[in-house]
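Quick question, first post here. What does this chain look like in 3D?
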Amino acid sequence: MDEDMRLIRKMQAGNESAIERFVTKYYPDILNYCFRHLPSQQDAEDITQETFARFFRHFERYRHYGKAKNYLYVIARHLCADYYHEISPPLSIPESPPGTNVEIRMDLAAALAQLDPALREVIILHYFQGLKFREIADILSVGLPLVKYRHARAKSQLQDLLREEGTL
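> Answer (accepted):
Ran it through. Tokens below.
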């Protein structure tokens, strides 16, 4: 039995500390995801809180088939989409690795904003959220080949856009 399943069983039994551990474990990832899709930190925090509220509101119907975090991503994705009626361009990018300058980060953010939302979503989930392609396929409710195609297409378009900006 995986760690999530043990935690969920404790939560189903009404263990308050298990609920707190669950939220503490996944809150930063979901907040980070929302922050990349929403215009402000406050909006991201609001949608993150609503993600957990919806999870727990319908918790009695939850069936654990894999990672609970993926289910939270699905909820967050729908809430972000509802917020804009279409997922907005990412408005932030991760902290720069040592030696990376602000101009490169800004060029990357601008290039990401130009991608089709479906392609951008794969890039955000894979590179910024650290998810595997199989997990992304589950979250987006699409096949693994389509995720791989979108990833390759997005990388190619990003390279072209960054070359045009003189970043590459």
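The radius of gyration is 17 Å.
The mean pLDDT is 83.
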